[in-house]
Amino acid sequence: QLTPSSFLRIGQLSNVDLNEDIRELETELPRQRPNEIPHNEKLLSLKYESLDYDNSENQLFLEEERRINHTAFRTVEIKRWVICAMIGILTGLVACFIDIVVENLAGLKYRVVKGNIDKFTEKGGLSFSLLLWATLNASVVMVGSVIVAFIEPVAAGSGIPQIKCYLNGVKIPHVVRLKTLVIKVCGVILSVVGGLAVGKEGPMIHSGAVIAAGISQGRSTSLKRDFKIFEYFRRDTEKRDFVSAGAAAGVSAAFGAPVGGVLFSLEEGASFWNQFLTWRIFFASMISTFTLNSVLSVYHGNAWDLSSPGLINFGRFDNEKMGYTIQEIPIFIFMGVVGGILGALFNALNYWLTMFRIRYIHRPCLQVVEAMLVAAVTATVGFVMIYCSRDCQPIQGSTVAYPLQLFCDDGEYNSMATAFFNTPEKSVVNLFHDPPGSYNPMTLGMFTLMYFFLACWTYGLTVSAGVFIPSLLIGAAWGRLFGISLSYLTKGSIWADPGKYALMGAAAQLGGIVRMTLSLTVIMMEATGNVTYGFPIMLVLMTAKIVGDYFVEGLYDMHIQLQSVPFLHWEAPVTSHSLTAREVMSTPVTCLRRIERVGTVVDILSDTSSNHNGFPVVESNPDTTQVGWLLLVGGHARVGWPCLFPPQVFVERANLSLVQRRLKLKDFRDAYPRFPPIQSIHVSQDERECMIDLSEFMNPSPYTVPQEASLPRVFKLFRALGLRHLVVVDNRNEVVGMVTRKDLARYRLGKEGLEELSLAQT
Question: Which residues of 459-477 are buried (b: 16+ CB within 10 A; e: fewer)?
Fold first, then answer.
């Protein structure tokens, strides 16, 4: 029973907080949970809603457009640029904050552990050092995992699959909330400091997207504050464009690659693109890199030297030493093949691990325990590998941050410790730039093997973490090993520089795992600051993608599929031309008349049995032909509708005249995106008998398709226009069905040909 104070009373649109009521309803559900949750990847979840990128050209929209003059349109355009600049600045500042905090906390941890190891190496009793290292890691990761598991589970992982889904047109609950950003930033700091095999670059993309969504709406629902700015942008179309700018700014801040950021948004994210949007996104990316660069330069004490454009900087690759010759191209292609196979193996292992987690490790407390276990095991593996390694290198002339002597002679350090006893970003740069002879092949081989399994186990834990840097680190290690082997085989030829092969191995491994081509080539080129390597990097990435795709999907696509998200790819399945709209559509469709009883509308909206939230408005004319209009309902569970129910909108039965106060588009924007549910409206018996004229609110020209249209045609129209509903009509223009995202995403190409997924309320 909802409290009277929280009712949205007839005639007054109050901004009630309906979260409390929803929470109350949630607490009434039975608390016991099964030990095993059966999960089938051939399901599509009905819990995900679609975003609507098509403007509804109803009377309210047209009236507002008539009122806006040329100057107002110019102002809106200027506001767009201002928002993009703010997105860039804030994303850059968040990246600086993460970088500085991680550097200080990780530095403190490594100094404490190093001091402890040095002390106990002389005295004996190194098991205490292992215990200290494992305990520090596990306790830091525990905090990071608790905040994610108990406060905001959507902040887990890198967030790239969720942002891909959002930009594809799927509404993932809580994905662009301020609370998610705070948990994401704190979580990623704690998981990197906790020594897990993770990077802080992936989560920057999610952070940028959240910042963009928040700024462009001019308010925060988490803080319950409305700043009354940028109200014009409160709709799905505008918000999606800004979120793609935020994602690009995130890539740009992470790698110092503004062009790579734009291409990432184009390749991975935005389903719809135009020239003005590209320019604005590039502007946001540039501002983001510049902000990060300026602040970090001041922090490092050289204010005028803008030398740190991204969170990870691969350092300069010298052309003279590191050039490549034509005979090396087949070697690079071979490395791409190896990267593709290893990437496919990584993804396959992670797939089975994720299935196991979904089934058995679904309680938050178990998720926290697993994260602590992985942190302790990572520290233990690192310690044992360093302890057993006898690979000693002279300390003079090396750039190791925390050299561990352990059982080496004075003036030497343990080279296994440079890989494990450091943040992953620093380890990658060391593998790229340390002079030949800095690593024993045995050291690199053991490190690659161990880190591969640790990174695979870590991705998918309930912590905020990215997979970019671990992938680069695994690839750099086996790439360097490959380079050393080549120089042995060619009796130390000058061209077989291990650093160059470390770079190619890193590209191959990352390409094999995430399967990005265009954006990743440019990101790697910008991060190394060297265009010379553009061609070999592109070859390596293409080969890795082709080989990897032969075995399994990319990591992000796989996780989207495991979450049963109705994700629409670029094209419909190739063999689907024989399917028609009649076979694909949802039926029966609930239709409304143009002037309808309020009671009928309320009953239809309260009925949860229909899967879609759009209702064609039909009107019969004397020739018995029905004309289809579409009345679209915003958000989940018909939630845009309570805005229609102040009494001013009702048409009284006695005199069919409207009261002067009319709804404006602003009323809908003020309620966006969390519209109050229909249950929060109290409609008396008398009011149920009133009539409501829907012609103001409905879209008079919805997109329709004939029922004989093939699936690829329907798919192309639906995806290219970013629709939420597509009405199917017969040859008499009568509404016979409705196509939604789930109807199209149900069909996909499997190993045995065209598969149809079943829909489930998961």
Answer: bbbbbbbbbbbbbbbbbbb
- Topology adopted by domain 581-638+691-759: CBS-domain (3.10.580)
Q: What is the mean pLDDT of residues 688-708?
A: 84
Residue type at 680? Answer: S
Close Cβ partners of 444 (under 8 Å, ≥ 6 residues apart): 477, 478, 480, 481, 484
Of 582, 603, 578, give the one whose Cα is nearest residue 592: 603
Most confident range (mean pLDDT) of 146-150, 426-430, 602-606 is 146-150
Give per-residue pLDDT as tens, 346-393.
Answer: 999 999 999 999 888 888 999 999 999 999 999 999 888 888 888 888
Inform me whether the pLDDT recorded for 33 exceeds 50. Answer: no
Domain parsing of the chain, residue ranges: 581-638+691-759
What are residue 693's DSSP bridge partners?
A: 595
Torsion angles phi and psi, residue 710, rounded to 5: -75, 160
CA dihedral over 23, 367, 172, 184, signed as positive or negative:
positive
CA atoms within 13 A on the CB side of 571: 6
Residue 531 burial (CB count, 10 A): 10
Backbone dihedral angles phi then psi of residue 645, each to the nearest 5 degrees: -110, 25
What is the rounded distance in angstroms from the CA atom of residue 535 to the CA atom of residue 533? 6
Tokens of 171: 């509404």
Cβ neighbours of 387 (radius 10 Å): 16
Q: Strand pairing of 225-226 and 219-220?
A: antiparallel
pLDDT greater at residue 375 or residue 614: 375
pTM (predicted TM-score): 0.87
Cis peptide before 673 (omega within 30 of 0): yes
The DSSP secondary-structure symbol of 733 reads: -
- The 10s digit of each residue's pLDDT in 425-474 is 888 888 888 888 888 888 899 999 999 999 999 999 999 989 999 999 99
